[in-house]
Write a structure and sequence with these properties.
The structure holds three protein chains of three kinds. Chain B has two domains: about 1-145 and about 305-375, 3-Layer(aba) Sandwich (D-Maltodextrin-Binding Protein, domain 2), CATH 3.40.190; about 145-305 and about 380-425, Periplasmic binding protein-like II (D-Maltodextrin-Binding Protein, domain 2), CATH 3.40.190. Helix content of chain B is about 45%, strand content about 15%. Chain B has helices at about 1-20, 40-55, 70-80, 95-100, 115-120, 125-130, 155-160, 170-180, 205-215, 230-245, 260-265, 280-285, 320-330, 335-345, 350-355, 355-365, 370-375, 390-405, 410-425, and strands at about 25-35, 60-65, 90, 135, 135-140, 140-155, 185, 190-195, 270-275, 290-295, 305-310, 380. In chain B, about 55% of the residues are buried. Chain C is globular, with a radius of gyration of 24 Å. Classes of the chains: A mainly alpha, B alpha/beta, C mainly alpha. Chains in contact: A-B, A-C, B-C. At the A-C interface, helix 1, helix 3, helix 4, helix 5 and helix 7 of A face helix 1, helix 3, helix 4, helix 5 and helix 7 of C.
Chain lengths: ~325, ~425, ~280
């Protein structure tokens, strides 16, 4: 699943009735039933989300065990190493750029696509399919295809730019363009997926609203800004959460296309964690880096929570 | 004296036990091999293992195809920390220090019993053995080994007015020929590059060809010190950088390893440096006459070796270790090594293998197969140290920084050396 | 269905609309380009991988080669087992947990719900280091269960179903109770049927996510009998010999074919189930 919060309330659904429970399960039995029902999920969640998060924290204060030498407590050594590690800082910077570059763009494009295929454009069905394709193709497979597109000289991108008289460009092999190229692949992958959610949301907006606006003679942009976009706000939030998570989670294309190169220009935090833990076999340092990722995500979650809270409050 | 006699007796008893036990019980070996299942290589290995079992009914070999080299290493390291450890495995020769540091493998000398055994271990190409030895001991037995060679497009040479049968012999010739081979259209865009040396993924390996040719070693034999900032190393890097940035006969930026053969087939480059493992691929896909040659010399000729070695694991019984030796000896015997080299394109590991009838016939029919062999006398060990991945990454990052113009070669190598020092200090 | 964007009474006029159509089509072309390229390359010889000539002869050879070069049938089976077992576990566990959250006022409910929500942001994909250690302790590396286990409890699923279950009218509860329904009977006969669109929508997201998931399976598997399609593809594509796009695209089409066709056939139903599920 693609973990993210759906909007809390949906117009038209029955208001939640928190606190009420079926009559016969009031009292002591409610506690037992409730816990029993929750137990299986809680155990798994605890084992693979909460426990590892805590264990990561603990392990970041130990050294990595190696060939008979057990791990020993090293205090803040791993964190000191991290602060002096230029690759860590580079990966952090790259990840920030990557998030800023992919999140707004993929959301905006997803919305635009959804508006188009929901409208009366020619060949709507075909277009919808076209926008849909990234959802179905595994990133690992399309990354190889994008690798061809970006290949200098005979790659698709260069074949097209050549028509306009430009020379060959080494897209993935130049520090300035490599990360941008990966961002584009991500936007391509995500916008098509997010479009589905917007499309579902758009189809729920009553047509009467558009008709009424048409009678009043209000412009399309005005209608979009004042009616459509606010109504889509819950979807936007949902999609936003997804996009943020993916910005820190999606490294499949890095594995295939650049392996973090050239000279760490496309090194993302999670890919660096993967390298440190599973190529260098330094799990303690891997845990230390993971702590940073956990803190970033926790911070973003808190930010969203506060923002979401305020938004609901003022409505 | 007394001690070694005792030990020999013990080994003799083990060996005796092995042959006596043959009637009752078989010794089973788990053998990890780094290949993804289903390809032609699996069938070749299966065939060799079956032949071995026929010749040695007392030993049963269970081959497990573990995927890529790194998958295999992962699988082995995981198994050591509690699990089903193999007795023999083929793993990258450069992972030797990693396996030693994990206390996973035994020195091959500890398995040798007879003079014949010793003669066998001395029979490999010295260039391959460099990656097998440290601290006076041998830890790996060469098996699936490769090296870098130069491929050139004969048509492109003809078009440029060069003799298609004469590839460049020196760096100076590489430059002068490269300049003739680089073609530009009327707008000044390059349509064909003179030379391409891939620099993605593991640029250190290709770079080692340049440093070896410049007569400088990148690390010491103990695997505890690197020489990244040696002036000769910087000079070699300066040459690589100049090829693209100054002379403009090599594509700019980082050149992808995976697309390099395709670039060659598409006539985007006239000369490429890549592994001998590409021979079969080039033979099948190049739509023009091509040649394979040793790489050009500067101060000397040279190439690093590459590929995988046999390792024998500690967590196995004396019987299994003895059986492992029998297995390795058989797999690397001249006939088998020749068969393996012909079937896969890897370089046969011993001079004796090239003296077999089968190999002689093959080389006669397809002379490029001999190029790698002839170059071996100039070959040095592939870069390998303790904390191999990290120390290598330091160099890779430095190379890519210089090739993309972010740092000067001298500054890039200074930074790489500083990082390698930091990592290796605890091992000295 | 008349979407706001296509409202022709807006002030943009014919030219604007035309431009907009062109833009939409250009975008569509870019978005479909990788798939179109894959289809082109897979059906032509390797020498046409970089040359898009219309007259190039068609061939099925790449599919044969790809099929022979790697055990895709096995990878496919692994992926299928993986995706179905994860989905089955997610559906059952999420349903039970969501029912608990929606209908029982047990001690610590709010705290537990907050703890569940943590997984929305901090997914197992990020905790690869520690989860690998756990799997080793459980002797589960290189098993399909090992790939799936961290994902089997889904906060997303619990969250969605809790929302839906809370919207089920109490009167239905009472009626079922009068008929002598057991608790699980009530869940099965009343709640589950009402949440059908949610199940479908969640199932789609889950299937497409796990079918395409890569990094964790890459870490935890290392043999043919466990590797899902994505890892199999990457092992297959990364060779010393360089990239052969003809075979890779053929393999890509073979492995994503079923999902692709399913989406093509049912895309309208998908959007509708998303709509009805209130995931928007």
């Amino acid at each position: 699943m693609s973990g993210a919060a759906a909007p809390a309330t949906t117009p038209g659904s029955a208001p939640p009735r928190a606190g009420r429970v079926p009559a016969r399960t009031r009292g002591g039995t409610a506690h037992i039933y409730g816990w029993l029902l929750l137990l299986p999920a809680a155990v798994l969640l605890g084992a693979f989300t909460h426990f590892p998060a805590v264990a990561t924290f603990v392990e970041s204060f130990y050294s990595t065990a190696k060939g008979g030498r057990p791990a020993r407590a090293v205090g803040l050594d791993n964190y000191r190493t991290m602060l002096e590690d230029p690759i860590f800082w580079k990966s952090l910077e790259n990840n920030a750029l990557y998030a800023l570059g992919t999140i707004p763009a993929s959301i905006a494009l997803a919305l635009l696509m959804a508006l188009w295929v929901n409208g009366k454009i020619r060949g709507r069905g075909l277009l919808r399919l076209a926008y849909f394709t990234p959802t179905v193709l595994p990133m690992i497979a399309v990354a190889n295809i994008w690798l061809f597109f970006y290949t200098p000289d005979y790659g698709l991108v260069d074949q097209i730019t050549k028509l306009f008289g430009a020379g060959a460009h080494n897209w993935l092999g130049t520090r300035g363009t490599a990360l941008v190229c990966l961002m584009f692949v991500t936007i391509w992958k995500e916008a098509g997926f997010f479009m589905i959610f917007y499309l579902a949301a758009l189809q729920q907006i009553p047509p009467v609203l558009a008709e009424a606006a048409a009678i009043e003679g209000s412009g399309r942009w005005y209608f979009f800004r004042r009616v459509t976009f606010p109504l889509l706000m819950p979807t936007t939030l949902f999609v936003l959460v997804n996009a943020i998570i993916n910005a820190f989670r999606m490294v499949d294309h890095v594995v295939v296309m650049t392996r973090g190169g050239p000279d760490n220009a496309t090194m993302l935090l999670l890919f660096y964690i993967y390298e440190v833990a599973f190529k260098f076999w330094d799990t303690a340092y891997g845990a230390t880096l993971t702590m940073v990722l956990l803190l970033i995500l926790a911070g973003l979650a808190l930010g969203q929570f506060l923002y979401f809270d305020r938004r609901v409050h003022y409505r | 004296m007394n001690l070694s006699l005792k030990r020999m007796l013990g080994l003799a008893m083990i060996a005796g036990g092995l042959s006596a036990g043959a009637a009752q019980a078989q010794t089973t070996l788990q053998f990890y091999f780094p290949v993804a299942v289903g390809g032609p290589i699996t069938k070749i290995v299966d065939g060799m293992v079956a032949d071995f079992e026929k010749a040695h009914p007392a030993i049963k070999v269970k081959s497990i195809y573990a995927g890529s080299y790194s998958d295999t290493l992962t699988k082995v390291l995981t198994a050591i920390k509690g699990g089903d450890v193999p007795q023999v495995s083929v793993i990258l020769s450069t992972d030797m220090y990693t396996l030693i540091d994990e206390d996973a493998i035994v020195p091959i000398e500890s398995l040798l019993k007879t003079d014949d055994d010793k003669k066998w271990l001395a029979g490999f190409y010295p260039g391959f053995m460099e990656n097998s030895r440290t601290g006076g001991k041998t830890w790996g037995v060469p098996f699936q080994r490769s090296t870098i060679v130069m491929y050139w497009n004969k048509d492109a040479f003809k078009e440029a007015g060069l003799d298609p049968e004469k590839p460049p012999q020196t760096w100076a010739e590489l430059v002068s020929m490269g300049q003739k081979l680089t073609k530009r259209d009327d707008k000044g865009n390059v349509t064909q590059w003179g030379i391409q040396i891939p620099s993605s993924g593991f640029p250190y390996w290709l770079f080692q060809a340049l440093t070896t040719q410049n007569d400088v070693r990148l690390m010491n034999e103990a695997g505890t010190k690197t020489n990244y900032d040696d002036p000769k190393v910087v000079e070699a890097l300066q040459f690589w950088v100049d090829l693209s940035r100054k002379l403009k006969i090599h594509p700019p930026g980082i050149v992808d390893w995976g697309t390099t053969p395709k670039d060659f087939f598409e006539r985007k480059v006239a000369i490429m440096w890549t592994t001998t493992g590409n021979l079969t691929n080039v033979r099948a896909n190049a739509k023009f006459p091509f040649g394979v040659a040793m790489m050009p010399a500067n101060k000397r000729r040279g190439s690093p070796t590459g590929g995988g070695n046999f390792y024998v694991f500690k967590k196995s019984t004396p019987e299994q270790q003895a059986a492992s030796l029998v297995f390795m000896k058989w797999m690397t015997s001249p006939e088998q090594a020749a068969k393996w080299g012909i079937a896969t394109g890897y370089v046969a590991v011993s001079p004796a293998a090239f003296e077999t009838e089968a190999m002689k016939a093959y080389v006669k029919d397809f002379p490029p197969a001999a190029v790698a062999r002839d170059q071996l006398q100039y070959a040095w060990a592939e870069l390998s140290t303790h904390e191999n991945q990290r120390v290598t990454k330091a160099l890779n990052d430095g190379l890519q920084a210089a090739l993309t113009g972010a740092k000067t070669p001298a500054a890039a190598m200074k930074d790489a050396q500083a990082e390698a020092e930091r990592i290796l200090k605890p091992y000295r | 269905m008349s979407g706001a964007a296509a409202n022709p009474l807006g002030g943009s006029g014919r030219l604007g609309l035309l431009l907009e159509s062109a833009g939409a089509w250009l975008l569509g072309l870019i978005w479909a380009a990788p798939l179109l390229y894959a289809i082109w390359t897979a059906f032509h010889g390797a020498e046409f991988a970089a040359r898009l000539q219309l007259a190039a002869p068609l061939t099925l050879e790449n599919f044969v080669k790809a099929w022979d070069a790697a055990p895709f049938a096995r990878y496919f089976l692994n992926s299928f087992i993986l995706v179905t077992s994860i989905l089955a576990a997610q559906l059952v566990l999420s349903t039970l947990a969501a029912f608990a959250f929606a209908r029982f006022a047990f001690v610590g409910r709010d705290v537990m719900f907050a703890l569940v929500l943590v997984q929305l942001m901090i997914m197992p994909d990020i905790l690869i280091v520690e989860n690998y250690r756990t799997m080793r302790a459980l002797a589960l590396p290189d098993t399909i269960l090992g790939i799936g286990l961290p994902y089997m409890a889904s906060a997303f699923g619990i969250f969605l179903l809790r929302q839906t279950f809370k919207g089920v009218p109490r009167e239905l509860d009472e009626a079922a109770r009068v008929e002598g329904c057991t608790l699980l009977g009530l869940l099965w006969k009343v709640y589950v049927p009402l949440a059908k669109p949610v199940y479908i929508a969640f199932g789609l997201v889950s299937v497409s996510f796990h079918w395409n998931n890569f990094l964790w399976p890459l870490i935890i598997t290392n043999s043919v009998t466990t590797r899902p399609v994505t890892v199999g593809l990457s092992v297959f594509a990364s060779t010393d010999q360089g990239i052969d796009w003809s075979i890779i695209t053929a393999a890509t089409l073979m492995t994503s074919g079923p999902l692709l066709i399913a989406f093509l056939l049912f895309q309208r139903q998908f959007v509708q189930s998303f709509m009805r599920a209130g995931i928007r």
